[in-house]
Design brief:
Layout: E1 4-5, E2 10-20, E3 23-28, E4 36-40, E5 56-61, E6 72-78, E7 87-89, H1 94-104, E8 115-123, E9 126-133, E10 139-147, E11 149-151, E12 154-157, H2 163-175, E13 181-188, E14 195-198, H3 204-216, E15 219-227, E16 231-238
Parallel strand pairs: 4-6, 10-13, 12-14, 13-15
Antiparallel strand pairs: 1-16, 2-3, 2-5, 3-4, 5-6, 6-7, 8-9, 9-10, 11-12, 15-16
């Protein structure tokens, strides 16, 4: 699969601090005087392994006249765990854009024969990411989750408890009884992984819900992408491994 561009014009910066979940402070590296700016953080997770003082990050400048609370957005981080060799996206909206485009072009691995019917489909009390039609004509519900936490080459989701995430998994499991196919796709926004696992330590409720969903017939896939400041490149599907709880 060819590299996929998200049409971002990113500039290098140095992370300083994160006053709250959605605001970061960064120092622009190549600007005169290295000005300190505030940048939106498009991921409400903890990100404590990534957003460390002094790490290199990439931000987008929306311009002075942009109708936004913050002029800048922090999109990517050079992982401090390997000395900045791995580029990691912390934008939780990118995976949905990525999957929507791949579905529309019939290029999402394993889903080439599925037809995209409607994004943001409401089922039960949840708005799920996609309603598809399977090759057999069945209606298919798909939820996409963004992953950026990696420990010992295992991608983990989530990095903070998510009641909403548990509800989505339970809704997808319930949808099987109504004749739907149900799928969960985890998009790993970094390349240094060999497997995926639900994060039982951080969110045991979600890990338990995912295990029950898989046992009931919900299909779960984890796709890994390698990033550059301009592109995502598909690097393959990694196995989904359920955690052993002692």
């Amino acid at each position: 699969m060819d590299p996929i561009s998200l049409n971002l014009d990113l500039i290098p910066a140095e992370f300083v601090e994160r006053p709250n979940r959605f605001v970061s402070v960064a120092k622009l590296i190549e600007e005169a005087g290295q000005p300190i700016v505030k940048a939106h953080v498009p991921d409400p997770g903890r990100l404590k392994e990534l957003l460390l003082p002094g790490v290199r990050v990439l931000v987008e400048d929306h311009g002075e006249k942009a109708s936004r609370k913050l002029r800048y957005t922090l999109h990517m981080v050079y992982s401090p765990e390997d000395g900045g060799k791995t580029l990691v996206s912390i934008n939780t909206q990118h995976p949905n854009r990525l999957v929507k485009g791949l579905l529309g072009d019939n290029k999402l691995p394993g889903y080439e024969s599925y037809q995209l019917i409607k994004p943001e489909f409401t089922y039960g009390k949840s708005r799920l990411d996609f309603l598809l039609e399977s090759p057999t004509g069945k209606k298919t519900l798909m939820e996409v989750k963004a992953v950026n936490l990696v420990v010992d080459e295992t991608a983990l989701f989530p990095d903070a408890p998510t009641v909403r995430g548990v509800r989505h998994i339970e809704e997808l499991t319930e949808a099987l009884k109504d004749g739907y196919e149900s799928h969960i796709v985890f998009i790993i926004q970094r390349a240094d992984v060999k497997r995926f696992s639900p994060n039982h330590v951080t969110d045991p409720a979600l890990a338990d819900a995912l295990e029950k969903a898989m046992s009931a017939g919900v299909q779960v896939h984890a796709f890994c992408f390698e990033l550059t400041p301009q592109t995502y490149t598909f690097r393959g599907e990694v196995p989904v491994v359920l955690p052993v709880v002692v």
